[in-house]
Design a protein that fits this description.
The complex is a heterodimer of chains A (about 290) and B (about 300). Chain A has one domain (about 1-290). Chain A contains 11 helices and no strands. By secondary structure, chain A is an all-alpha fold. In chain A, α2 runs antiparallel to α3 (about 65-95). The radius of gyration of chain A is 21 Å and the shape is globular. Chain B is an alpha/beta fold. Helices cover about 30% and strands about 25% of the residues of chain B. In chain B, the strands form 3 sheets. Chain B has a 6-stranded mixed sheet, sandwiched between helices. In chain B, strands 1, 2, 3, 5 and 6 form a 5-stranded antiparallel sheet that branches. The chains are: A mainly alpha (about 290), B alpha/beta (about 300). The interface of A and B includes residues 8, 11 and 117 of A. Bound molecules: adenosine-5'-diphosphate (ADP) and magnesium ion. Magnesium ion binds near residues 42, 43, 81 and 157 of chain B.
Chain lengths: ~290, ~300
């Protein structure tokens, strides 16, 4: 393979990625999600604002100590993280489920793929375009949640950069699975499958957490297995743990580890999750290359 | 030969046959017509040529390369039968995107885009949204997009399906211009008169098999029919030697003869006159693509 061909391959991938990004911004699911996200952030922010006023008045009266206040802040932040990453995850799925299948159904892909472009370049370009949009979007949403919690209720943050990186990784994982599915499945079936996988990962995460609480080996393994199948929820739990280490979430009343922070996925699981999108996209390239269009 | 296939076969899922042992050769610079009724396998063949589907068996070479050669597609253009383009783009944006896929410089793309849009009569629509286009305009845009790279070989799958008679004439003229510039055009069509007007060579396909192929002039030569009008009755039993001619039908004043070649017409007329027939009119019935098509493909009713 000559280097000229490689560099023009990069140009083709970027051309597809750019068009995919522009198209994604126009999709109604993305626009609707954007509006919903704004609404959600508005409600969360308003809640935090009034909570902060109440906390101030209570704290002022009772002389609540600094640590207790931090813990309340941490709890408020942790409350906001799950719904927002759920929204981001669903946007990732629905923005990506039709990425290849939609173009194949409409016939747009036939004009594109008879150009001197490899099918793998199309898959990669589609993924990169969507990944770029989802990176910006998830950074904005998760960043806004953290910023509001810090600003209103003085929530503590530990490894902020690491946590944000993981919050970005989560939609990238979901997007990669949806792109893979769209190389083979009809859009609707792919949407159902990806949402179901996301749900299974979430349930697997709960099973793993309960397993860790009651020290059940079987339940832990079920959780790990579902995380291998779809690491989105594992990434989320690790991200929360990075942002708010379990110690910060200790109930101020004493004892009891907060539910969501137990069973923190291992570094190996995170490494797996980082490699996961690449595996999915490579598989998608392989699938599309072999099929009749 | 710019296209050469040998025994190209495509079997779809559940044993459905798309192409069955298609062996074709297309010479450079020709407008090649690929004819057949709906479902005959025309689109299947073209999709294999442009690399959208994989043949089940057989061999093929396009532009001197095996099927699926990626860089070769830069010298090839394709108008799909179900043409659709990103409706939210303008032609300028669409052609710029395709130009980037072709590896053209932006200035070259813009120049080529104006040229091909003018060629299909859409020069004014460069900045309009594609979704506002009529079906016919979208088909013209598809033609422009297929011609963007000034391809050596252009595959057009039913390029006039959405056009009115004037639009069809425009496309015929376009094909002739392309041929004059040396472009080879592979034209899928079920419109016989269209093919007859522009094609140098044709192949006919039915049920996935090629049933006739060759230069148009050759296919249309061969057996012909002559209608001879007579003043007064004439009886074939009079014993005039008719050469190779056979009587296809006969009324009191009109006989239709079948002849092996057109060259036999003067001898037939001479023989009739010599036998005392009072010939008042001789009309050669031209063999056209339609009669050839009906002969070879048959008259059976299909979809
Ligand atoms: N994707 C497909 N799967 C199964 N059968 C197909 C497919 N595409 C075409 N066929 C069948 O192959 C035959 C040839 O189709 P096609 O090449 O589209 O014909 P044409 O273009 O001449 O109308 C038809 O019988 C058609 O039903
Ligand atoms: Mg067809």
């Amino acid at each position: 393979m000559s280097s000229a061909w490689t560099s023009s391959a990069a140009r083709r991938v970027l051309a597809v990625a750019g068009l995919t990004f522009r198209e994604a911004r126009r999709r109604w699911v993305v626009v609707a999600a954007f509006v919903m996200t704004l609404g959600y952030l508005g409600i969360y922010g308003t809640g935090l604002y009034f909570a902060s006023k109440d906390i101030m008045s209570v704290a002022g009266g009772t002389g609540m100590d600094e640590i207790a206040l931090k813990m309340i802040g941490a709890q408020m932040l942790s409350l906001g993280l799950f719904p927002s990453s759920l929204i981001v995850g669903l946007v990732a799925v629905f923005a990506s489920v039709a990425s290849i299948s939609g173009d194949l159904d409409s016939g747009v892909a036939h004009a594109v793929l008879t150009r001197p472009i490899r099918r793998s370049e199309l898959v990669l370009g589609k993924y990169l375009g969507l990944a770029f949009m989802l990176t910006v979007y998830s950074l904005l949403v998760m960043g806004a949640v953290v910023a509001m919690a810090v600003g209103f209720v003085d929530a503590p943050t530990d490894n902020l950069v690491g946590a944000l990186a993981l919050f970005v990784l989560e939609p990238l994982v979901l997007c990669a699975v949806a792109v893979l599915g769209s190389t083979r499945l009809p859009t609707l079936a792919n949407g159902v499958l990806c949402t179901a996988l996301y749900g299974i990962a979430f349930i697997g995460g709960i099973i793993e957490q309960i397993g860790s609480l009651i020290a059940s080996e079987v339940m832990l393994n079920i959780g790990i297995l579902t995380s291998l199948l779809m690491p989105a929820d594992a990434i989320h739990r690790r991200a929360v743990a990075e942002l708010l280490p379990p110690a910060m979430l200790l109930d101020p009343a004493g004892g009891g580890v907060s539910f969501s922070a137990s069973a923190v996925p291992s570094g190996w699981m995170i490494l797996y999750a980082v490699l996961f999108p690449a595996m999915m996209v490579l598989t998608g390239m392989w699938v599309l290359k072999r099929r009749d269009l | 030969m710019i296209i050469r296939t040998e025994g190209l076969t495509k079997v779809y899922g559940r044993g459905k046959i798309g192409n069955d042992g298609v062996s074709l050769s297309v010479g450079e610079g020709h407008v090649f017509g690929f004819l057949g009724p709906n479902g005959a396998g025309k689109s299947t063949f073209v999709k294999m040529m442009v690399g959208l589907i994989q043949p089940t068996s057989g061999r093929a070479e396009v532009l001197g390369q095996p099927l699926g050669h990626v860089a070769m597609r830069g010298r090839m253009g394709f108008l799909p039968e179900t043409f659709r383009y990103q409706a939210w783009l303008t032609p300028r944006e669409l052609l710029a995107f395709h130009g980037r896929l072709l590896g053209l410089e932006p200035s070259a793309v813009s120049e080529a885009a104006h040229r091909v849009m003018a060629e299909v009569g859409l020069a004014e629509e460069m900045g309009a949204k594609i979704k506002s286009f009529s079906k016919g305009m979208q088909q013209r845009l598809g033609l422009a997009c297929a011609m963007l790279s000034s391809p050596r070989l252009l595959f057009l799958d039913e390029p006039t399906s959405a056009l009115d008679p004037l639009g069809r004439r425009d496309v015929r003229e376009l094909l002739v211009r392309l041929r004059d510039r040396g472009t080879t055009v592979f034209l899928n069509s079920h419109l016989l008169s269209e093919v007859e007007m522009v094609c140098d060579s044709v192949a006919m396909i039915d049920h996935g098999r090629v049933v006739a192929d060759g230069p148009l002039a050759e296919l249309l030569s061969g057996p012909c029919e002559v209608e001879i009008s007579l003043a007064g009755p004439w009886d074939a039993a009079d014993g005039a030697p008719l050469g190779g001619a056979s009587i296809i039908s006969q009324t009191a004043e009109r006989v239709i003869f079948g002849l092996p070649t057109e060259d036999a017409i003067p001898d037939l007329v001479a023989a009739l006159v010599a036998a005392g027939a009072r010939v008042v009119g001789v009309r050669r019935r031209k063999r056209d693509l339609e009669s050839l098509f009906i002969e070879t493909v048959g008259n059976e009713h299909r979809e």
